[in-house]
Design a protein that fits this description.
By secondary structure, this protein is an all-beta fold. It is 0% helix and 46% strand. The protein has no helices and 22 strands. The strands form 6 sheets. Strands 1, 5, 7, 8, 11, 12 and 13 form a 7-stranded antiparallel β-sheet that branches. Strands 6-9-4-2-14 form a 5-stranded mixed β-sheet, with no helix packed on it. A 3-stranded mixed β-sheet has the order 3-15-10, with no helix packed on it. A hairpin with a 4-residue loop joins strand 21 and strand 22. It is elongated and about 90 Å long. The two termini are 46 Å apart.
């Protein structure tokens, strides 16, 4: 789908000299979430702007992205937080590509803070599993489709070419780990008491498609005479578990 809205001036597909800026960086981020454990569940990627020592007033940005369509299905692209609340352009007609631009509402001031500030939010559906894979979403860097910002210069504007950080490693894993418990154990009670301590329970066999994080059991310190059921639990790196 391709849409275009008239608004704050954005240099879409323009060729212009690179303007200086105070270390602006655009980062693709899923925030603190790096594991996604629901099949077809949301994978939300934000385009965040930071500036180390801002003096520029950023009016908007144009983002040219690729994504791994074998792992992610595009659901939506929307503007970010204030002041970048106005969609200027959107083209998602090519599978695996996103061309998107945001600006500010008419009469609004641009952004001159350090950030991070969210300029746009992309929502995908998790289509396939992936274990700690980086660059599932990246900025395109081939002219003329080069991601850029627009800054205010007097009564006009100029393009700014920020540093670009692609999406870091994330894991998409909805498969629980496997576990096979060790066999039953018979143990003689300790001398003079009706329980046994220090019982060697053996080690379960575990496995997972992305990696096992922990294996624990609920064995008591003292086993009373009779049968005691011990439950083993294996948890993988994304928190999926099995007993």
């Amino acid at each position: 789908m391709r849409t275009c809205t008239i608004g704050t001036i954005i240099f879409l597909l323009a060729s212009a000299a690179c303007a200086t800026a105070d270390n602006p960086v655009l980062t693709l981020s899923t925030g603190v979430t790096t594991c996604f454990t629901v099949e077809n569940g949301d994978v939300v990627v934000d385009i965040n702007l930071t500036q180390e020592t801002p003096t520029d007033e950023i009016l908007g940005g144009q983002f040219f992205l690729t994504y791994d369509s074998t792992k992610l299905l595009l659901v939506s692209v929307v503007p970010g937080e204030a002041p970048f609340t106005r969609q200027i352009y959107s083209d998602t007609s090519v599978t695996g590509q996103i061309d998107y631009a945001v600006g500010i509402p008419d009469g609004s001031a641009g952004y001159d803070g350090t950030g991070p500030v969210r300029m746009a939010r992309i929502t995908f559906a998790a289509a396939a599993q992936a274990c700690s894979v980086a660059d599932l979403v990246t900025f395109r860097t081939t002219a003329p489709y080069v991601t850029r910002l627009t800054k205010k210069v007097g009564n006009t504007s100029e393009p700014v070419y920020p540093a670009l950080d692609d999406l870091g490693a994330i894991t998409i894993d909805w498969t629980p780990p496997t576990i096979t418990c060790p066999g039953n154990v018979s143990q003689t009670a300790d001398s003079g008491v009706c329980y046994a301590t220090g019982v060697a329970l053996g080690t379960p066999t575990t496995g997972d498609n992305c990696g096992v994080a922990s294996v624990v059991n609920d064995a008591p310190a003292q086993f009373p005479v009779g049968d005691t059921i011990v439950t083993w639990t294996v948890t993988d790196i994304c928190g999926n578990d099995a007993t």
